[in-house]
Design brief:
single chain; about 130 residues; mainly alpha; 4 helices; rod-shaped
Length: about 130
């Protein structure tokens, strides 16, 4: 994350962000007080995340470029990303589990063959001793 301690963007980063916001909504206050207020409101969010949220929102709703809306959009994007990562991780786990089962069965078949046991679990082969 860029910025200073506690995840706050630097003043210069916030000036860049407010410039981007103002390029989509000329009504946005870009005064020093606004820079400070937006920095405080968006603490914990990176410049890149905020820029992406501004660009996404500006194409459809430029009049709603506020810190609260940007935070909501970023939080939604973070949750979506986390969900995608969890689903993918679960898919990889399931694929690995399936490979493990195949490997286990292959190993069990080799042991059964080496011991002269039937391929059916629980079944025994007939030998002269069993007659």
């Amino acid at each position: 994350m860029s910025g200073t301690a506690a995840g706050a963007m630097s003043r210069d980063e916030m000036v860049v962000l407010l410039g981007l916001v103002a390029s989509h909504d000329r009504r946005v206050d870009t005064s020093e007080a606004a820079v400070t207020a937006w920095r405080h409101a968006l603490a914990g969010y990176s410049l890149g995340e905020c820029q992406a949220a501004v660009i996404a929102r500006a194409h459809t709703r430029p009049d709603t470029l506020t810190p609260a809306n940007l935070k909501r959009d970023i939080d939604t994007a973070r949750r979506t990303k986390a969900t995608r990562e969890t689903v993918r991780r679960n898919q990889l786990d399931a694929e690995q589990n399936a490979r493990n089962v195949v490997t286990i069965h292959r190993g069990m078949a080799k042991v059964r063959a080496a011991m002269g046991w039937s391929a059916e679990p629980g079944a025994t082969t007939k030998t002269k001793e069993n007659h």
